[in-house]
């Protein structure tokens, strides 16, 4: 459970209850959230690969290297930022229905390489030539995905790997096209709740007092127990 963020409270005024749990900070440098993020992206890779393979589309594993004259992550990332939009447009001209999941990696030599699952359908020869035109490396790879399990293994190999200290602020560890499938929201009683984020020392006390004043039960989502019987780890003065 993430210890950095505040609390999430889901209010159900009709049923006279409030569900409370820890929020997630959603940061890769948080051990708890990093594992959640990794699991989430692996699941999205699985969902996407299954959908496109089932539809008869060609899905490929792709590796795009940075230019060999560049020496570090920052340089290769800088070139990638200008090269990718141009390469993307060229890919779209080949396949207007292009969908992708991109995972940057810090290679052993310090440069940024990019791994992807995509439906572009281009050959390795095409990718080598067109990547080079945009200032990227010449050593590119394109391998056909034969199964959903293979796609999951590929993403698992690279997702969540340490990128070092050169990663700029706001850097996206995973990027997907707009129509890459999302994880379906489960149909649970939580869907109809009015959610509120509360933070800071004493936040839980404020929620608890409000529940008491309105005769609303405060319940721990993780255990299903009433707040009187659980401790969520936030200081509560005077209780």
Structure report:
- The protein is α+β, with helices and mostly antiparallel strands and 239 residues long.
- The chain has a domain at 35-176: Alpha-Beta Plaits (2-Layer Sandwich), CATH 3.30.70.1910.
- It has 5 helices and 9 strands.
- The protein has a 5-stranded antiparallel beta sheet with strand order 6-3-5-4-7, sandwiched between helices.
- The longest helix has 24 residues, at 31-54.
Q: How would you briefly describe this protein structure?
A:
The protein contains five helices and nine strands.
**Can you name the CATH architecture of the domain at 35-176?**
2-Layer Sandwich
CATH fold-level topology of the domain at 35-176: Alpha-Beta Plaits
By DSSP, the count of extended strands is: 9
Secondary-structure element order, N to C: EEHEHEEHEHEEHE
Using the alpha-carbon principal axes, give the shape. elongated
Secondary-structure-derived class: alpha+beta
Sheet with the most strands: spatial strand order? 6-3-5-4-7
Report Rg.
Answer: 23 Å
Q: Residue-averaged pLDDT, rounded?
A: 88
